[in-house]
Amino acid sequence: MKRHLSIFTLCNYIFLALVGFSMIYPFIYILVYSLNDGKDSMLGALYFLPRKLTLDNYAEVFDNARIWKAYKITLMRTLLGTFLHVGLSTLMAYALSKKSLPGRSFFAFYIFLPTIFSAGFIPFFITLQKLHLINTFWVYVIPMLFNFMHIVIIRTFLQGIPEELEESARIDGYGDFQIFMRIILPLSGPVLATISLFIGVAHWNDWFTGAYYVSDKDLIPVQTLLQEMLTQAEALSSSMQRSSQQGGQTISGSAAGSTPESLRMALLVITVFPILCIYPFLQRYFVKGVMIGSVKG
């Protein structure tokens, strides 16, 4: 029995290691590609180590003023959008967690209704236009202030806080706002970290808003810029293939040896790196928040 169990455990470890490697390897490939000479990368056969190590791709990326502006917009929208979203969601969840709230069922149904019905892309665009949000920074922040599932997760967590804490605070003369700031928020660290991770990643990875609701190049986030570079790289690749088939001259990269594909890989590494650094510190809260929403919600 012990031998059978040990064989199963060994096979299980091997299987999980292969699954984990299959998820990690794309990041390794992107990193290797970004650290290799762009023209040399066109030859292929890059797997685990760069063949011609260079930092020219990153140097060219950081020399681009447009990329710095896009990175600034992404960072600002992520920080501000996460702060406002978590703050408003926590306030709403705290109110809905009180059974004594007048019209509690009505408000819960009212905020749940938009999650069922969606007007579609065109009505949403017209709404943003009427609110004068098109081509402004706030088009990234205001539409993402509300998420029903996040409110449910926070409300479920708050309902698990003993009511005796609030009762003792009221005896000491605390009001609702003081209770919220001095008792509820300090005890809500795990769920707030979870929601911050959810909405922060959503803001950081969003490219759709910048692509369809913003035409000002100074307001484009880095993910939208990355999507544009992807489109340009595909168009350039198609153009080079056609030129090669016709016997004409191919389009070369920069003098430093960079190509649109290598620059895109470098930008992708720069884009993903902050999330990879933050995620390990919030992972335990992430798991706990998911369990709260799935088991009790």
Write structural notes for this entry.
With 297 residues, this protein is mainly alpha-helical. Helix 4 packs across helix 7, helix 10 runs antiparallel to helix 13 and helix 12 crosses helix 13.
Radius of gyration: 25 Å
Could you give the count of β-strands?
Answer: 0
- Low-pLDDT parts are 248-253
The largest sheet is: none
The secondary-structure class comes to mainly alpha
What is the percent of helical residues?
over 70%
Q: Estimate what percentage of residues fall within beta strands.
A: under 5%
> What's the N-to-C terminus distance?
40 Å
Order of helices and strands: HHHHHHHHHHHHH
Count every helix, treating DSSP H or I runs of 4 or more residues as helices.
13
Offer a concise description of the structure.
By secondary structure, this protein is mostly helical. 71% of the residues lie in helices and 0% in strands. The two termini are 40 Å apart.
Q: Could you outline the blueprint of secondary structure elements for this entry?
A:
Layout lengths: L1 H33 L3 H4 L14 H7 L2 H32 L7 H9 L8 H10 L17 H12 L3 H9 L4 H12 L1 H17 L2 H5 L9 H25 L13 H37 L1
Helix pairs in contact: 1-13, 3-13, 4-7, 4-10, 7-13, 10-13, 12-13
Question: Could you name the key traits of this structure?
Answer:
mainly alpha; 297 residues; 13 helices
